[in-house]
Amino acid sequence: MYESFLERVLFSEEQLNERITQIAKQIESDYKGKKPLVVAILKGSVLFFSDLIRKINGDLEIDFMSISSYGSGSKSSGEVKMIKDLDKKIEGKDVIIVEDIIDSGYTMKYLKNLLQARNPSSIKICTLLDKPSRREADVTSDYVGFEVENEFVIGYGLDYDGLYRNLPFIGILKRSVYEK
Ligand code: IMP
Ligand code: MG
Asked: Which of 145, 151, 177, 154 is nearest to 21 (CA)?
């Protein structure tokens, strides 16, 4: 059933689980004695977010934000728009932004600037995937699950044209799907 769109599996459920456990333990020790506000960027980060926070042993709060980079397809246009803001103020809080992937970096740069202006006590970025070779905006992530090559990836929250978010693994999308 997968062969119509999947080139190959890049990170299996087991690999994701193992790496996410490591990141959770790192966050746990970095935020000892604090109550970080962990912010999921909808929709792509929801699977990563829910697996990550349940592995963090310690007090934390959660909130959600929805962002869209204009344009569908396999490239982001660099223009970013907020669809849903956080519910609560973040002044004085230790914020961790959880994202699915940093590609050009425009989305994360926009988000970080936006939240920084609200005077949190600190902001860190946690991304499951990073495509450093595609970076255009100047942004780096504090926690990175895996680096990926310049390929379009799907699954475990990541979509192509709204589909494939429910795959339990991360895979490479066949070029024939988006080059037609
Ligand atoms: P950026 O603003 O170019 O860094 O793009 C960030 C957003 O583009 C991510 O949050 C994803 O929604 C989307 N994106 C970038 N690369 C991929 C990919 O390989 N697969 C799925 N979505 C991607
Ligand atoms: Mg996204």
From this structure: 145
